[in-house]
Write a structure and sequence with these properties.
The protein has 430 residues and is of the alpha+beta class. The chain has helices spanning 24-36, 75-84, 87-90, 129-137, 190-194, 256-264, 267-278, 326-346, 354-383, 387-402, 404-414; strands spanning 14-20, 46-49, 70-74, 95-97, 99-104, 110-114, 124-128, 145-148, 151-159, 162-169, 172-183, 199-215, 222-227, 232-238, 247-255, 285-288, 292-301, 305-306, 309-311, 317-318. It folds into 2 domains: 3-95 and 128-201 and 297-425, FAD/NAD(P)-binding domain (3-Layer(bba) Sandwich), CATH 3.50.50; 204-296, D-Amino Acid Oxidase, subunit A, domain 2 (D-Amino Acid Oxidase, Chain A, domain 2). Helices cover 33% and strands 30% of the residues. The strands form 3 sheets. Strands 5, 6, 12, 13, 14, 15, 16, 17 and 20 form a 9-stranded mixed β-sheet that branches. The chain binds flavin-adenine dinucleotide.
Amino acid sequence: MAESHIDRPGMHTNYDIVIVGGGMVGAALALALARGQVTQGQPLRILVFEALALPQTATQPLQPSYDARSTALSLGTRHLFEYLGVWPGLAAQASPIGHIEVSDRGHLGTARLDAVKERVPALGYVVENRSLGQALLAPLEHEAVTFCCPAEVVAAQAIPAGMRIEYEYQGESHCCDSRLLVIADGGRSGLREQLQISTVETPYQQCAVVANLSLDRPHNHTAYERFTDTGPMALLPLTHDEQGRARSALVWSVPLEQADELLGAEDAVFMQRLQDSFGYRAGRFVAVGERHGYPLKRVLASEQVRTGLVVLGNAAHALHPVAGQGFNLALRGAMVLAQELLQAQAERRDIGALETLQRFQSQLHWDQTKTIGFSDRVTQLFSSPATTQVFARHLGLLGLELFAPLKHVFAQSAMGLDMPLPAQGRSGSV
Ligand SMILES: Cc1cc2nc3c(=O)[nH]c(=O)nc-3n(C[C@H](O)[C@H](O)[C@H](O)COP(=O)(O)OP(=O)(O)OC[C@H]3O[C@@H](n4cnc5c(N)ncnc54)[C@H](O)[C@@H]3O)c2cc1C
């Protein structure tokens, strides 16, 4: 983002909405609010704080949302991105998922999903987070959103008119007031803790080892979900590398005690270990990029709204990545929140009122319950070597493969199409 866009704080000390965290979720919310109010009149004064400097070059370190990972976007997310106007800029970097193969290493039984059979252009898309960052942040430059970066919010407290926010910018402490504060500062949210919002944490005792790999044959837009003796593994189709070779993004869940060794291994050793675990159904791995490790735990905030306050994205719910649902769920939440706030603003209601925010939360309740439950069940079922779980897994895969209506229901769920889209996303054409 251009330096010129970074307004000096102090220009406005009062805002309508302050978003803490310019990651994928905070940026998407800011964009939805800014784009939505074009037709609604009554401009909202919106400020986004981001603690880490945005990278200006490809070699600079990246902030959490825009790091070396890739994200599997559901088809429903594509519709929402179309509504936000970011899809045209992202489409060239998005690798469509034409097929999904779910299998269990060392056991018979593979369930296959196919975009053509489901009558959709793709079952989903895989995009590198770096590209997602550009697609979400660049359009904000043209919107009436103040982006304050790098600036760290250090504390917040309730005041009669909303929330008072304290932050550090260029070595100095400042504060501003806002009618509504949205906490979108990620899974290890410091602000959530400072405001004494407790969490329920479930450590998975696993680490996600993430890397991009080149293959010796075309991936044919196939995504693999493979259940190995170490834990679940996803291999997702990416766009080609510079040499025109097929590339895939790996998310390999391994027991915590194995992670360091895999992260530090020589490339050739790592690829051999992966090949031994994954097998050869995607071909041979011929090159591997940087590896990163993410210790995995489910974190659920016990409160998501208070008067003048919303907790959003990973700060509200951090999930196991195996089902690829975390961002997709959070984006639906951001869109519902934007819709609710814009409506309140248009009707001259208080955007920080508890009843407005509770309406937002109740709209999300079923989606969150179902999506979090689905992620959890998949994780438990596919991480356990216990005989009963292995048996249940095979029965599930077999049932999925043989019973077409069940497969369709599963596909709709994986594509994020079984949830009513927020109103803004419904017009998105495929
Ligand atoms: C290995 C892995 C793979 C995944 N794959 C998928 C997938 O395929 N599909 C999917 O849907 N989801 C996936 N997810 C989940 C997805 O990455 C998260 O849901 C998403 O990154 C959440 O974004 P966020 O903006 O809420 O949080 P973050 O990405 O953590 O962003 C928070 C931002 O807030 C900033 N910040 C923090 N504190 C402050 C402060 N005090 N002041 C100002 N700024 C602050 C941070 O610098 C950061 O930029 C995956 C997760 C992992 C770990």
